[in-house]
Specification:
Elements (H helix, E strand, L loop, with lengths): L5 E2 L2 E9 L3 E8 L4 E8 L7 H16 L8 E6 L5 E5 L7 H7 L4 H20 L2 E2 L8 E6 L6 E6 L6 E2 H4 L14 H5 L6 H16 L9 H4 L17 H10 L11 H12 L61 H10 L2 E5 L5 E6 L6 E2 L14 E5 L6 E8 L15 E2 L3 E3 L5 E7 L4 E10 L2 E9 L2 H9 L2 E2 L4
Antiparallel strand pairs: 1-2, 2-3, 3-4, 4-6, 5-6, 7-10, 8-9, 11-12, 12-21, 13-14, 14-15, 15-20, 16-18, 17-18, 18-19, 19-20
Helix pairs in contact: 3-6, 3-9, 6-8, 8-9
Length: 481
């Protein structure tokens, strides 16, 4: 969607971000003299009643809650083409994921952020609403001057997976971010507020250590986790009481967790009070560049993938569904891009070693990562390349990995409606393909033997099967024998 001049009565300034279901614009409320964020349903989902209902429900859930620690919905409407939109609080200071990518927080800062997020969750729970997707990307920061002091406030956003507690007790959709999702949610069990407590416990672990407690590749792995490793290490010890508080919130059996969010946060702050915690520099959470309301000429409009702040080496990669922290590259001027698009809709992209090449639609080349990845269980990096963002739209990942036998594990995709039986091909089972549909769109997982001890792992996410097959046919491996 190109930059609109207005959305309803709001003047549009720039695009904040986009995903598979919606685009978020920074706009200006001229009547109230205030910036706002407007979330608009993507045009390709206008006719999908389930997606549309889920979009509208997010606004209703947020509207139920009056809390400074939950993103507010101030208005709602419908564009001329029938797409609904939500007018929301503008988070002018980015997300917790942004802050963690920039560097570690002090323990005091991290605990204060968890306290504020806990207040937001408690407000949701009092209104009988579950969040179900508490993670760094959904913790937003905004400037708050209500107390006469310029400070940064944390608040929860994105209730796209939110459900009322009454609804969750009868029917639960299996969804969430694997490393932050409670086991019972990953299994599809009926949920209560303790599922959000588990996610907040995982977030607490992350802000205190710089790493998530788990690196689950799928919701299937999140359904049966082992106990989380201790917070502290020999070089960064934490008090035993603080360890116990977080470990209880992360209990696999929800009956062993804290009774509610307030109990957990109260115990956490009490355990940290007066204790000597691992040092880290106090960082100013304010980012002056994020407060600009007008268009920033130096900021290219490129999509980005979900960052993993706990991974300092941005060249290493885990499973394709979790590829994160990718450094996006701009394509150049829009006029040149449109000209090239008309001339040749497909382009060739290679990894930085020239081992793998892909032929992909030019429109996918919003982000490119070509620096390799670390397959599960491996300590070294192997050639890999990803084009596009699996979180925000069509994308393809291809990476080499070692092994003599056909890999047994394929990532699950519970967001998809259907999965076709796996197809194995070639003498000696040289390949395996699994196709997921209704994701929305299609996801294809494929592993192919390229030498006696090397496999190529491929994941394609596309709006349609024809494009996915075209991309699969255009993948090449070079220099291996």
């Amino acid at each position: 969607m190109s930059l609109p001049v207005r959305l309803g009565r709001y003047a549009v300034r720039r695009r904040i971000g986009s995903g598979g279901f919606a685009t978020v614009w920074l706009a200006y409320d001229e009547q109230l003299d205030s910036p706002v964020a407007i979330k608009v349903l993507a045009d390709n989902w206008t006719e999908d009643s389930q997606v549309r209902r889920r979009f509208v429900e997010e606004g209703r859930f947020l509207r139920k809650v009056d809390s400074p620690h939950v993103v507010g919905v101030h208005d709602a409407g419908e564009l001329e083409d029938g797409r609904p939109y939500l007018v929301m609080t503008y988070a002018d200071q980015g997300t917790l994921a942004d802050r963690l990518t920039a560097g570690p927080l002090s323990a005091d800062q991290g605990i204060d952020i968890i306290r504020q997020v806990g207040l937001g969750l408690s407000a949701l729970h009092r209104r009988e609403v579950l969040h179900r997707d508490v993670k760094p990307q959904n913790v937003l920061f905004r400037t708050d001057e209500s107390q006469g002091v310029d400070q940064v406030r944390a608040m929860l956003g994105d209730l796209g997976l939110g459900k009322s507690l009454d609804m969750s007790s009868r029917l639960t959709m299996i969804a969430g971010t694997p490393s932050f999702t409670a086991p019972e949610q990953a299994r599809g069990d009926a949920l209560d507020a303790r599922a959000d407590q588990y996610s907040l416990g995982a977030l607490t672990y992350l802000v205190l250590t710089g790493r998530p407690p788990y690196a689950h590749a799928s919701l299937a792995a999140a359904a049966q986790p082992a106990p989380a490793p201790p917070l502290g290490t020999a070089n960064r010890p934490y008090p035993a009481a603080l360890e116990a508080v977080v470990a209880r919130a992360l209990s696999v059996d929800r009956a062993d967790r804290w009774p509610d969010i307030d109990s957990f946060v109260g115990a956490l702050t009490a355990a940290a009070a007066g204790q000597e915690l691992p040092p880290a520099p106090e960082r100013d959470l304010r980012d002056p560049e994020l407060t600009a309301v007008g268009v920033r000429p130096s900021a290219p409009q490129v999509a980005s993938t979900e960052p993993t702040p706990s991974t300092p080496d941005r060249r290493s990669r885990r499973w394709p569904v979790l590829v994160a922290g990718i450094l996006a590259t701009a394509l150049g001027a829009a006029g040149v891009w449109l000209h090239l698009e008309r001339q040749d809709p497909y382009v060739t992209v290679s990894d930085d070693q020239g081992s793998i090449s892909l032929e992909v639609p030019r429109s996918w080349r919003t982000t490119v990562a070509d620096g390799g990845w670390q397959p599960p269980g491996q300590s070294i990096s192997y050639p890999a390349v990803q084009v596009g963002s699996p979180k925000d739209g069509p994308a393809v990942f291809a990476g080499l990995m070692p092994g003599a036998a056909l890999p047994e594990l394929l990532p699950g995709h519970p967001e998809c409606d259907d999965v076709r039986p796996r197809v194995r091909g070639g003498a000696g089972e040289r390949s395996e393909t699994e196709v997921h549909t209704g994701c929305p769109g299609v996801v294809v997982e494929r592993v192919v033997r390229v030498t006696d001890n090397r496999w190529l792992w491929v994941q394609v996410r596309s709006d349609d099967s024809a494009t996915a097959n075209r991309v699969l046919d255009g993948i090449r491996v070079h220099g291996l024998s």
